[in-house]
Design a protein that fits this description.
It is a single chain. By secondary structure, this protein is mainly beta. It is about 5% helix and about 40% strand. A hairpin with a 4-residue loop joins strand 41 (about 495-505) and strand 42 (about 510-515).
Length: about 725
């Protein structure tokens, strides 16, 4: 019998017979007195999760009657037994009777490997069958041993030099017992996290901490502007105890003027406007009341003159509401603020600190829809977490509540008196960057294409589809080194063919158009998921846009088209609108290409006014234009061909002669009637318009100086001829 081990024994009847003990009175009477286990329990079985099994403990089994009967040892759930210390473990084993008859048998017990973290209590059973020997029946054996143990989570502490029990992972508890900076010491991934008193954890730029469940802060936790702090489980808690501090530091983009707005959203809970937006101008801090937004009238040139229509401006100007300093910034809500004028220096970025418990878990934000009146039902919301969120995951979670497009304010141009709005000077709504679900993303006024992530602290506009809540969840959050850099990071997906076309001017205007050939899209209006309209007023400085048949009033910043549409025969018409009146040089260029077809085919730009085809793949296209809207001047094509004049009409059939008395004669030699005449100067400005209904007509050009002009002649059969004219005095 092993010392200090539970021992099972059966009373020794043979000894009783040898020494005359009177233990029974009849040879067929069964033995009823059995020795019990000397120790009734085993405890202290333990191992760290993923490192099992546990160290074994043991007990002995013996049958002092020297009888040949098997003993069965059965372990409870989570345990296993064996007669060998290192091998042969099973949930139940049988010891042969012949082996038992030789003497004490040691049985080993341990917790099995791969158990989840938990406490494991149970009972080991030891049984042997009833047996009859020499006409004597010996009763069955049934004994038990209580066992208890646990599988624990690995804990590892940062000591200032290293981790005490290995680098933490998703199954380990991380304890910060000295200052730690993820940008220097490495990213942290852990099951839960504890920051102990008087110690600091910094989530540095372009680094992250990813915690599966709970966070407790007794010291100091700081998330820098481009760092990401992520909690994975929506039921995980963030506890900020007395004496502890947690904060997120964000920066504005470079501000050229104090009145440049930034759209904010708080990544912490319970911060007030005075606290979080302390560096903002108190009289220029706003929240957006979407319930008050109504846009059924369109203004012209900010002149308080309206017609029925939509210009993305609230008609009565009560959508933006001044934010009081004591107002608590609500999670998931967007806010707008300018920087303080005190100490302002143009071109700098400015820090804003959001202090309080970091937001985590499911967060909902109200969305307002004011009816089917044709307007866009704008709502200003924001990323509520101290990490970037994935745009596509956000769209997927809210398919019926909001349109599948977001608008990000990038602020690039100064406010102007002619921009529509509720103020004397209004910002250009063309500065919004746009991301939609199905087709892609385009740059705003900054000229940098956004990625498909919304950084922490970022507010953005969405279109409400119904009165409901938009939902944010931890599953949208990004734990990596780059997603939270800013929304101006390039994306490198190369599956679909996409063309980004840029418009720039020599006086600083910028605009971008995206044409995307993606699965699910068609050449029709497929809704915001594929076709995103511009959030713009008609007086925006200079914009390009695509149009879709059947929707003449819509100007698309992003157009999705069927994958099968993209062939060498494809024609992409696009429009230009400019309100610029001074002489301006406009330039078209390829902003970005994606996909095999677009990367391997030459892209041509057709200027139908000037009757030119330009290789846009080889060089940018520069031109002049008068102010106005031009929906049929430009096309993108993929093969070089003759422009403007059908095969049955030659430019030679049109004769242009300068007559005396400042007159110009237009004459068709093939009896085709002239319907309209337009003359453009080299700046693209229309200088003459005339109507006709004959094969020959004369127009007065006394007001024109000596110069070259472009004549655009519309024929009665619908064809157009473009020809150069030299005016002589």
């Amino acid at each position: 019998m092993k010392t200090n081990q539970p021992t099972l024994r059966v009373a020794c009847l043979l000894c009783a017979l040898m020494f005359g003990f009177e233990t029974y009175s009849h040879p067929n009477s069964p033995e009823t007195t059995l020795n019990s286990v000397s120790e009734t329990s085993l405890s202290g079985f333990v191992y760290e999760y993923h490192s099992g099994s546990s160290t074994p403990q043991s007990f002995s089994v013996a049958d002092d009657l020297l009888l040949t009967r098997p003993y069965t040892i059965t372990a409870p759930s989570g345990y296993e037994v064996s007669t060998e210390v290192a091998t042969g473990y099973a949930s139940s084993i049988t010891i042969p009777g012949a082996l038992i008859a030789l003497g004490d048998i040691t049985v080993y017990v341990r917790l099995t490997s791969n158990l989840p973290i938990a406490t494991y209590n149970g009972v080991i059973t030891i049984t042997a069958p009833e047996i009859t020997e020499a006409s004597t029946t010996y009763p069955a054996v049934s004994e038990t041993i209580d066992v208890s143990g646990e599988v624990i989570r690995r804990e590892t502490e940062w000591t200032g030099i290293s981790w005490s029990n290995g680098i933490p992972d998703t199954d380990a508890s991380a304890i910060i017992n000295d200052d730690y900076n993820t940008a220097i010491n490495g990213n942290i991934t852990a099951w839960d996290l504890l920051v102990t008193p008087e110690n600091q954890l910094i989530i540095g730029n372009e680094s992250f901490a990813k915690i599966q469940t709970n966070v407790t802060v007794n010291g100091d936790l700081t998330v820098e502007a481009k760092g990401a702090f992520v909690q994975v489980d929506d039921n995980g808690t963030f506890t900020l105890n007395t004496g502890g501090a947690s904060k997120v530091i964000k920066y504005t983009t470079p501000l050229n003027h104090w009145y440049d707005y930034t759209y904010w959203s708080s990544p912490v809970n319970s911060a007030t406007a005075d606290e979080a937006l302390a560096n903002a101008n108190p009289s220029r801090r706003y929240w957006y009341d979407a319930e008050n937004y109504l846009d059924v009238l369109a203004e012209t040139d900010n002149g308080n003159s309206y017609v029925a229509g939509h210009d993305d401006i609230d008609d009565d100007g009560n959508d933006w509401v001044l934010l009081s300093g004591s107002s608590v910034l609500e999670s998931g809500v967007g806010y707008a603020a300018t920087h303080s004028t005190t100490g302002f220096v143009g071109g700098n970025t400015y820090p804003y600190t959001f202090e309080g418990p970091l937001n985590t878990g499911t967060i909902t934000t109200s969305i307002h829809y004011n009816g089917d009146n044709g307007d866009s039902d704008w709502n200003l919301i924001g990323n509520p977490y101290p990490s970037a969120i994935d745009v596509d995951a956000f769209f997927d979670a809210n398919p019926t509540v909001i349109g599948s497009v977001i608008y990000l304010w990038t602020h690039a141009t100064t406010p102007e008196a002619n921009n529509n709005g509720n103020e004397t000077y209004n910002f250009n709504s063309d500065d919004y960057a746009i991301i939609n679900a199905g087709s892609g993303e385009i740059a705003g006024g900054s000229s940098v294409i956004p990625s498909r992530f919304i950084p922490s602290g970022q507010g953005f506009f969405v279109q409400g589809l119904e009165n409901d809540d938009v939902i944010f969840t931890n599953s949208m959050r990004m734990a990596d080194n780059s997603s939270n850099n800013s929304f101006f990071r390039q994306q490198n997906t190369l599956d679909a063919n996409k063309l980004w076309l840029n418009l720039t001017t020599n006086n600083g205007a910028f605009n971008q158009l995206l044409i995307a050939y993606v699965d699910g899209a068609t050449s029709a209006d497929d809704g915001l998921y594929y076709d995103a309209t511009r959030n713009l007023s008609t007086d925006a400085a200079a914009v390009i846009y695509s149009t879709i048949s059947g929707h003449p009033d819509k100007k698309y910043a992003i157009q999705g088209k069927a994958v099968t549409d993209l062939t060498t025969e494809e024609v992409i018409p696009f429009g230009l609108y400019t309100s610029i009146t001074e002489p301006t040089q406009y330039t078209f260029s390829i902003g970005k290409l994606q996909g095999d077809f677009l990367s391997t085919h030459t892209i041509y730009l057709k200027d139908l006014l000037l009757n030119t085809t330009h290789n846009l793949s080889a060089a940018d296209y520069t031109f002049s234009s008068e102010s106005g809207e031009f929906n049929s001047r430009f096309e993108i094509v993929f093969q070089e061909d003759t422009l403007g004049i059908p095969s049955n009409i030659s430019q030679n059939t049109l004769r242009i002669m300068e007559l005396s008395h400042n007159q110009l004669q237009f004459k068709m030699t093939n009896q085709q009637a002239i319907q309209s005449i337009e003359l453009y100067n080299t700046l693209g400005q229309k200088v003459l318009t005339a109507m006709a209904n004959e094969t020959s007509t004369i127009v007065d050009i006394a007001h024109l100086g000596q110069a070259s002009y472009i004549a655009k002649i519309g024929l009665q059969n619908g064809q157009t001829i473009t020809k150069k004219v030299l005016r002589r005095l």
